[in-house]
Amino acid sequence: MNDKKKIIKETVKKHIPQRHLASVRILYRIGMETIYGIKRTGLINIAIIAAMAAILTIFGALFRTSFSLSSFVDKLGDAFEISVYLKPNVDPVYIKSRLNEIEHVKKITIITKEQAWEDMNKDMDVSGMDNPLPDTLHITVDDPSNITTVCDDIKSVSGIESISYAQEIAKKLQTLTNVFNTVTLLVLITVAMLTIIIINATIQLVIQSRKDEIEIMRLMGVSNWYIKIPLILQGAVYGFLGAVISLIPLNTVQSGLLKLHNFLAIPPSEFAMNIVVFCIFIIAIFFSASGSLLSIRKHLRV
């Protein structure tokens, strides 16, 4: 059996160019060094990966929730129409054409005073009265945050009697969105800092445990990158595993948000979860590898 394996091994070697074979050996050794580095860390690996998973879960939950909050704000924003009441004898079609020139105006609906009076007659009997209602324009903006700006521009158009809209609710919604986005950004910065600190401390321990071995490799003329890459990969592995574990609680968050969307009859962002997962893996791997590299530069002069 061993003879057969040897024959197969020799046959494979003959068909692989020497330069490619050398590259495969180097990659194999780098992979094995990465595994040895993780083994040397021992039970600390569990604490490192758990800490990574926890901070990534917090970031992922906030990031995913921010997508849903944006959907809620956009949907509610469509309901926050600006009502523009016109002066008597002013052509609403002309005013509509003027208002369409204002930036951030998404849609304008004309409600004539006759139409408004007819709708009022359906709810109550006012047939014996003269129509006191003005022509009205209902304006929808492209984003709730632009309501105040659009209102200021509308006031400069002549022929308008007054303007009304849910100013306080619009401001509160925009404030909530801004606060949530700011908190998400701060958590991202915290994730980056904690990841780098955790990985930095871990790689420092690995470097100290391999100090003599690394010194021997230096004396033998081993490439600096051959020493660095396994340590960088070790950090990246921690980030990857932390990201994988963080997906478990994030799926619970996703399910809860989808139920809330269904309850409010507001469609969720189609690719929200995919974007969150992609960002978590990129952030985890990048900052973990960066933490390793910083540790190498600080504690290993190669």
Topology (elements, then pairings):
Elements: H1 2-15, H2 18-41, H3 44-79, E1 82-86, H4 92-99, E2 105-111, H5 113-123, E3 136-141, H6 147-154, E4 160-164, H7 167-209, H8 211-219, H9 224-264, H10 272-299
Antiparallel strand pairs: 1-3, 1-4, 2-3
Q: Could you walk me through the main structural features you see in this protein, from its secondary elements to its overall organization?
A:
The protein is of the alpha+beta class and about 300 residues long. It has two domains: about 25-75 and about 170-300, no CATH class; about 80-165, Alpha-Beta Plaits (2-Layer Sandwich), CATH 3.30.70.3040. Helices cover about 75% and strands about 10% of the residues. It is built from ten helices and four strands; from the N terminus they run H-H-H-E-H-E-H-E-H-E-H-H-H-H. Strands 2-3-1-4 form a four-stranded antiparallel β-sheet, with helices on both faces. Helix 2 (about 20-40) packs across helix 9, helix 7 packs antiparallel against helix 9 (about 225-265) and helix 7 packs parallel to helix 10 (about 270-300). The protein is elongated and about 105 Å long. It starts with a helix and ends with a helix. Residues about 10-15 have low confidence and may be disordered.
